[in-house]
Amino acid sequence: MGRPGSFFGVVCLLGALLLLLPAVSRDKAVPGWLAAGQAEAAVTVTPTPQLPQVIVRENFIQQAVKCIDETLAASGETKRYTVVPVNVPAGLRLPWGEITYRTYAPNGIRKSLNSAISVEVLVNGEHYATMKCIMKVRFFGKVVTSARRIQHEVPLQAADLRIEEREDKGGAYATYTDPQELIGKVLFSNVSEGTVLHSGLVREPILIRPYAVVNICTVFNGVDIKVPGTALETGRRGAYISVKNDSSGRKVRAKVIDENNVMVVQ
């Protein structure tokens, strides 16, 4: 069996450590700025005689939002955006003195992803602490969407398209802002009404099909040359396909220019 004195010493040590912990009280009310559905209780940091000043969570949010506004303004961002606090310090105790802030986004502002904002706290102009705030910035912009269900490989018309405001999540594909850019193009797959059209969905229509008669064009020593040929593959504008020179029987790769012409690049 252990000695009673040892057990008493451990209890005293634990009691001393508890006294050193920050005086934090939990409030059942959830602040209005918390995201909908967030279940965690609000945390209130209270002052102590040694550290009589307190910066509350809302102050850190204000500083982080100000940093985001200034960073985006400096970058020339024009899209509408909203800011949602994700993980913000509950508060900070400080000694007496004038409180000022310096803020920066060490990794920039990420579209619809968590962005870290560093809030440096100074007391009488001297560094006291740096607090990290995790914020989500959601961007919104006007983009082209489908006005109705559209079948793949059917050339797009003006009636198929409309402009809507949608969240810009910064995906790998570029979206469109002008419906005229899409007139005459086709889709890779069927889409439902309200689908955001992007470069991963849109492509050029088929202009040339196998066995179509085409002009094989090239430039030799500054002279334009055109000979009759036969397409051996399906081709879209800008794509390279195999064609056969009807005069020589030779097969070459050529770039589709339009419905009637392909270009061999020397």
UniProtKB/TrEMBL annotation:
Question: Flagella basal body P-ring formation protein FlgA SAF domain location, by residue?
Answer: 142-264
State the source organism's domain of life. Answer: Bacteria
Ordered alphabetically, the record's keywords are: Cell projection, Cilium, Flagellum
The UniProt entry's GO biological process terms, in alphabetical order, are: bacterial-type flagellum assembly
Give the transmembrane region(s).
none
For the keyword Transferase, the answer is no
Determine if Magnesium is one of this entry's keywords.
no
Q: Kindly provide the name given to this protein in its UniProt entry.
A: Flagellar basal body P-ring formation protein FlgA
